[in-house]
Automatic annotation (TrEMBL):
Residues 30-283 form the Rhamnogalacturonase A/B/Epimerase-like pectate lyase domain. Pfam families: Pect-lyase_RHGA_epim (PF12708). This is Rhamnogalacturonase A/B/Epimerase-like pectate lyase domain-containing protein.
Amino acid sequence: MLYQEGIVKRIILAGMVMLGGIMSHAQHVTSVRAHGALADGKTDDSRAFQRAIAKAQKNGTRKIFVPKGHYLIAQPIRLPSYFTLEASPDAYIELKPSCNQYLLQNEDLVNGNAHIKVTGGKWNGNGWTQTRSIRSTVDSSEFCFGMFFYKVRQLEVSNLQVDSTRSWGIAYMECDTVHIHDIRFQQNPFKDARHTSALGQNGDGVTGGGNHVRIENISGFTNDDLVAFAAGGACFQGRMAPFPAVDYRDVTVRNITPENSCDSIPALKAVAFYTFENRKVSDITIENVHGNTAMASVLFYSLFDKTGYFSNVTVRDVSGANVYGRSTQAWYPTEYGIICVRQSVIDRLNISRVSREERRYANPQFSFDKHTIIDSLNIDQVDIRHQQIQGDLLWQAAGAVIKNSRITGVSVRNMK
């Protein structure tokens, strides 16, 4: 009994020591408010963020906290290696109009950084007041992304919202081991005071390229792709950004929910994979994509008339239809299938558990253009319901080369 009591006492003491350590650590977490951030939505708090970051580096915690408040910044928050930014759910970080900057970036855009984590907050880029500048190098350009990570190893971004950035909401390029999850987007759907749709203006949600990438639980509206993956390159209204074309592998995109904006404009595409300069992306899994889009739900595309390569691709659990019908972009629903391949070579493409309820457009569920080559195609469990739609709602593949295929469990039926 005495022996047991001694054990209990030692456990309690050890717990008190651990709790004390936690409390001590919490006391040393560096708040931006303690370093001069006013959070009044009027004063530029950029320097306060950098002072807090410098302090956290010096005291060894390597973490800053952004409490509730409205923070206006005119310069990007620059995060060094082995560093965490944690924001309260009630923290609102806004980019000053017309400053043509990022909301946040890694510190070294030449050599890169390692082990960066960003979580929490609502981030607003004041998108249509910003002007992009694309120059010969990445570090000299002003792409006006919301968050921009370049050559970062071990990156995590989570549990936050991004609104109205001029270009991509969260951009990561040439990164390794990336986890971006639980993000909501409300990108600006208009490009002027007359409410002209900004659809297609390359305002993606999450876009990037890297190895060992996990993109999960992404929802909301964007002017372009909700989630995109690029094997290098990037085009902004016809001009190429200076990102090199690279082969990548091991990419998972799951739980993607495109939504409509305020006047029923849908996101342009849910998930898109792009290759540039004959590069390849391998070992791709896309699953649980649910929601209507203006173009494709899932797209594979090699741009600028260059053949792109994809290897070992799995797409499963996809539902949605093309719904956009504004007169200014009336061609969108007829140009793309719900799952679409363009200008690409794929060795293995496995598609399963796909459903669609179509009330308007006769475009196909699966569209493969004349430049598509697929070595092995497997399609299983497809359910398409429609209301008196005339045309082929299942398949369009004129000119495509599909060497081996297996198609099972397909149902196309008229709804009563």
